[in-house]
Amino acid sequence: MNPGQTAGRPGRKSIAAAALLATLISGQAWAAKREFEMNIEDTRITLVEKQQFHTFAFAGQVPGPLFHVDEGDDMEVKVNNMTALPHTIHWHGMLQRGTWKMDGVPDVTQEGIKPGDSFTYKFKAEPSGTMWYHCHVNVNEHVALRGMWGPFIVKPKAPTALEKRVTKDFILMLSDWDSKWANKPGFGGLPGDKFDYFTINGRAYPDTEPLRITKGDVVRIRLIGAGDLVHSIHIHGHAFKIAFKDGFPLPQPITGDTVLVGPGERYDLIFEADNPGRWMVHDHVDSHTMNGDRPHGGLMTVIEYTEVKSDDAFYPWNKRVPKPNFYYQDSLKKGPGIYTNETFQGQAVQ
Ligand SMILES: [Cu+2]
């Protein structure tokens, strides 16, 4: 997010949000201070078509704002709980050396942030890589069903040779929903629940968005398992390198076309865009490509090469209205900062 922007729904006065960046001298090294304030708000989002869901959204959006910072930055994030239930934020992947009380686990490192209360998290962004953040109160409901998650990308001080070549960078957060609990906040997420909606960045196909690339690009896809289920992500037409696991570079990247992503895990895939066409990206757990009882939905998207026209009559996206920044690719290009995303803004629930 850039200084001066507001982290919440435009026009909602209760939202006090500001981000500013100060550069401080820390020892002998330069470390930026990243300050941000965000609300947790009762928010209705639309997964696909008419299927809506009541969430407790960070800054009124699902996924939450993108934290894109440099390794070693000093984070200071004030969280205001505007909902009727307690929450915390766990910064998944952050080592919290010397700051264990900032780890965001209720009744272990802090009390849950009560309705109407605030809490400020202060910690150092380390190590680098694809990380994420999520509530840690009643995770079975708040993470699995209420959209309480967002991406946290820490830029390395010493990037690998492979990642230096990347020209297109995309974030895909995978999650699962049981429509039975859509309008019952405070309930759900029980053993035996039947998940019937499956999303990438909170949307199911065909309301996801193509990954637009051009021949010659080096593409990075950051997969984040934010939901309750395991997803077997398959990309057609390309062999990718599994280059990072949970943010850490693999000394010997693994070549493949399918990768299994469990809850909490991150995998960064990197591949050369060398095969112009229109290529499926989907979960190979076949039932996860459904929207309720209707097939050809769920956890699917398409790699579209810009060289290939999208005007075939049979193609659902032949006349699509683009959803800007759907994979945070525009925010990632802007460099370090904290970025809200209008594409993911829901409606306030009063
Ligand atoms: Cu919560």
From TrEMBL:
Residues 1-31 form the signal peptide. It is found in: Periplasm. Gene3D superfamilies: Cupredoxins - blue copper proteins (2.60.40.420). It holds the Pfam family Cu-oxidase_2. The keyword Protein transport does not apply. The keyword Oxidoreductase applies. This is Multicopper oxidase domain-containing protein.
